[in-house]
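**Protein of interest**
===
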Amino acid sequence: MRNIFRISLILLTVVGGIFFTSCSQKTTQTGLLQGGVTIGPITPVQTPGQVVIVPPEVFSSRKVLVYDASGAKLLQSVTINQIGQTANGYYSVELAPGTYTIDVTRTGGVGGSSDVPKKIQIVAGQTVTLDINIDTGIR
């Protein structure tokens, strides 16, 4: 009986060790691209410090676009999450290591940003932060 216990214990140790080793050898295969997004002005003649409630469609109608390094092939369209009812939002996306060109959609031909297009380099296990300020063109 004692030998069966020892054999069982050895088998559990070996199997558990193999399982643990295979799990612990898993490496991070992606990096993270994240950033804050501001969109404005929302109304004509918006004065500094003026509190304006921003409709959700201001954010839902725009996306952060992830292209290949050349900027020719669209790889992902990333949702911008609005923070409350403010003109502030954020986005986050996991990407394989490599070079990408980042841009944003333009709603109705307006709403560009001088922050993009921009080339970024993703490294496995690391985070790249790219904040984007979108000018709606409303004056």
Residues 1-24 have pLDDT under 50 and may be disordered. Residues 30 and 36 are 20 Å apart (CA to CA). The longest strand covers residues 31-40.
